[in-house]
Every structure is written in C-alpha cells, then in structure tokens.
Design a protein that fits this description.
With 422 residues, the protein is α+β, with helices and mostly antiparallel strands. Helix 1 crosses helix 9, helix 7 runs antiparallel to helix 8 and helix 8 packs antiparallel against helix 9. It catalyses: Exonucleolytic cleavage in the 3'- to 5'-direction to yield nucleoside 5'-phosphates. This is exodeoxyribonuclease III.
Length: 422
C-alpha cells in the first residue's frame, strides 16, 4: 500500500445532540483518522444534510431510529476513495462496502450487533458479504458479545451471547478473519465497554476483525478513552509510511494579547531589541523590531502548543489508568478523578473547536446546527485573499487609478495654463 491508513471504530451512544456530534467530528479530524466506523448513531434520513456539512467529507449512512441503532462510515475529506459496491442494512445494523483506497480495494464492514443472542443476524451478514470481493476485509464495530469470558470480561455473570459468538467464530474461519488485537496481545486484558451500574461490569465488545494476510501490514491496534460514551475508541493503523511535511506559513494568533505572561515578555523583548539595534535609521530599527517580535512570538506559541499537547497526552494516560483502577478496585474517589479528567479533556476539545470558528473570522454563530464546513471554507477563502498575488493585483489596480487621475489633472492644468498665456 502506498501510504498509512488509520481506521477507528466507536460506539457513540447517540449523536443527535449537535454539540456532542460536533465535538466528536472535531476530535476525529484533529487525529486525522482516514476511515471512521460509528455505531449507535441514532441518525435519520433528515439528518444527512447537517451531518455531511459538519463532517465536510463522505458519509455512508445506515439509519436506525431517533433513539436506537444506526451505523455510519466517515471518510476523511482529503482521502481519495472510490466506492464500487455497497449494502445497507434495512434496520441500521451493518454497512458493507467494496471501497478502493490508495489503489487497494477493501471490503469494509461496519457492524452494530444486537444485544440479544441472535445468531441469525450474523448468518444474514455473512450471506450479504457473499456478493462482495472479500479478498481484503476490514471489519469493525460493537458486536455485543465477548470471545473469551476469562480474558474479555470482568464482573457480572459468566455469560455472553454464546450462540451468536459461536456462529461468528465459524464465519471467521470461512473468511480467514482474525481478531487483530487478541492476535497481538494473546493474554492481554483490556475492556472497551464499562457499565454505569453497580457492581461494575467491563467487557471487550468492540473489535477489529481483518483478513489474515493483512497482519504483517498492521503497525498498531490500540484504544483511546471515549467522549461521553461508555465505549472507548479502537484504532487500527496499517502500513506505516513516513510523509515529509514542510514548515507551513506562520500567522500571529491575536489571542496571545490576552496572555499576561506573553505581553510582559514581549515588552521586554521590544526594549532589548531597541537597545541591540542602536541609533540606526528608523526604518532599519522598525524592521529589526518586527523580526524580533516574530521570532519571539513563534517560539512562545510553539512552546505553548507543545504544553497543551503534552497535557492532552497526560490526560489520556490518566483516564486510561483510572479506568483500569475502576476495573479492579472501584471507589468513589477514583470515579470522581475520572470524571474530572474527562471534563478537562472535553474542555480542551471545545477549545480546539472554538479556534476553528475564530480563525474563520465569522461574526456570528447560529445557536442551532453549526455548519463546520462553512467555517472551514470561509477560513480557506480568507486565506486566499491574503496571498502575495492578490495583494500585488490590488496595489496595481490602485496605482492604475491614481495614474489616470494624475494624467487627467496634468491635462487640465496644461490647458488652463495655455489659455492664460493666449
């Protein structure tokens, strides 16, 4: 494969609430996932236009009802894909796609399994897959059963949807599928779902099942804490390739003017710059001070962003650690710490989302559905008006107008003087 592909699966526990949905979309965009498989979306056909505009890329829907089921597949806007064939379940339980990404064709399957023991559902899914290529399969979702009671479940009764599980194990052998996380962690324990009741129950219900021949291409499969859900994110990364990236164009972030530490240090920076440049031409002094301001602002912004990213990473580690503590030693204190850490992480994601809106230079934000694609396109448009070509054309236009005015003034003056002389 030509480049890295990242897949994420996540049970959102209902995404009709606009703020919750936008927060999730912002998180997925910021982490740059290529393909996102979501379950329990609670989407309806009238929601499609809003969701597509907010996401900004391709979404394949499988609608359930306003308060249950629903599956969808989100494709990163910048990722070039071609969908050759699709199958949408009538009741919002699965999506099957033959999809071409980076010149490779995958059979992509997003699943939200019933929470009752119904092996007939997996028989139906297998029958539908029979008409697809199924040479390279990536299947993911919430299956609502555990493969191993000893390794994939703690707390509660020692049972699962046994008939559904056994049926699916036989189907996995037919399509040569492997549970990739278990394959890479034969005796590991990690849970993707936690109950909200006492006593605590924790299960690994969310899986990536992939074709056996894909295993050498798998770089990593790991978990990340969820956002306002009792499930966590499951992430699969295939075929890593290092991509070179340029430095980009720096812009001053005027929110720094509200940072008292920055303002204080900047005052000192300007004073030091004026002392350093000495009694030169004012134009030279001005250019040197601007250079110092830019250099200091870039370094300060970079360090501040690094600290924010470090704090995000620390919060994710803290949340994972606290969740593990709750698995084995539940307590009110640990639960309170986990709640506070989740709130802080949500505040960070909201801060990132506000930054996108502020950079768009929009003067208003609707109280209802906020069209994220609108803000992103507006930001792109504003950026296009700030490039050198546009500035030069504007200056040339103004110079042309002034030139015509000067010519007309000179002609009138010449005629006036000529009349006086005669």
């Amino acid at each position: 494969m030509a480049s890295t592909l990242s897949f994420v699966t996540y049970n959102g526990r209902g995404l009709r609430q606009s703020k919750k949905r936008r927060r999730l979309f912002a998180f997925l965009h910021r982490n740059n996932y290529d393909v996102c498989l979501l379950q329990e979306t609670h989407s309806c056909i009238q929601d499609e236009i809003y969701w597509k505009n907010e996401w900004g890329g391709t979404i394949i829907f499988c609608h359930g009802s306003k308060d249950s089921r629903g599956v969808c597949v989100l494709i990163k806007p910048s990722l070039a894909v071609s969908i050759h064939k699709e199958c949408i379940h009538a009741y919002g339980r699965f999506i099957i796609l033959d999809i071409e990404i980076n010149n490779c064709i995958f059979t992509l399957v997003g699943v939200y399994g019933p929470n009752i023991d119904t092996p007939a559902f997996y028989t139906e899914l297998c029958d539908k897959m029979g008409s697809f290529l199924c040479e390279t399969i990536v299947m993911a979702g919430d299956f609502n059963f555990v493969f191993s009671l000893e390794l994939d479940k703690t707390g509660g009764q020692a049972k699962t949807n046994f008939k559904a599980r056994d049926k699916w194990l036989s189907l996995m052998s037919v399509y040569s599928l492997i549970d990739i996380w278990r394959g890479m962690n034969p005796f590991g324990k990690h849970y993707t779902w936690s109950s909200n009741i006492t006593p605590d129950i924790h299960c690994r219900l969310d899986y990536f099942l992939i074709s056996h021949h894909l295993r050498p291409s798998v770089h990593s499969v790991h978990f990340s804490p969820g956002l306002q859900s009792d499930h966590c994110f499951c992430i699969l990364v295939i075929a890593p390739v290092q991509m070179a990236r340029g430095p980009g164009i720096w812009k001053f972030n005027d929110s720094l003017l509200d940072d008292t530490i920055y303002v204080s240090n900047m005052n000192n920076c300007i004073i030091d710059a004026l002392k350093e440049v000495g009694p030169h031409n004012p134009a030279v002094s001005w250019d040197f001070v601007k250079y110092k301001i830019r250099k200091f602002s870039m370094a300060y912004s970079k360090e501040k962003a690094k600290l924010r990213r470090r704090r995000e990473y620390e919060l994710l580690k803290i949340i994972l650690s606290l969740e593990q503590q709750l698995f084995f030693n539940p307590s009110a204190s640990v639960s309170s710490q986990l709640k506070n850490a989740n709130f802080e992480l949500l505040d960070y994601y909201d801060f990132k989302l506000r930054g996108t809106i502020i950079r768009s230079k929009a003067r208003w934000v609707e109280d209802g559905e906020k069209n994220s694609k609108y803000f992103l396109n507006l930001e792109k448009r504003n950026k296009s008006f700030s490039n050198y070509t546009v500035l030069i054309l504007a200056l040339m236009k103004r110079f042309s107008i002034l030139s015509r005015i000067f010519t007309q003034f000179r002609t009138v003056t010449f005629l006036f003087v000529k009349g006086i002389l005669h």
